[in-house]
Amino acid sequence: MRDPTVTAAVALALAALARSLRTGVEPVHALDEQARAENVIPGSDCYDDAAELIGFPYCRALDLYLPRRMRDRVERAHFRDAHLALTT
Q: So where are the chain's domains?
């Protein structure tokens, strides 16, 4: 049996990517719009999973959704220097 949370996250991610392709907005903005349309709360498990699927995982150090490569750079930095990873 499929996990409904995972199924909802995949559906949200796919709808956000389709919205992004249709409208030309950035995928993370399309995810935000799609989540709002579906009453999914940013920061919820469903939203976080969908963000991860579209390539914008949550970064705890900065409390932001970032592109995967940038998030990895931030997480490798010392906590007090995490913000510097955004400029390099």
A: 1-56, 57-88
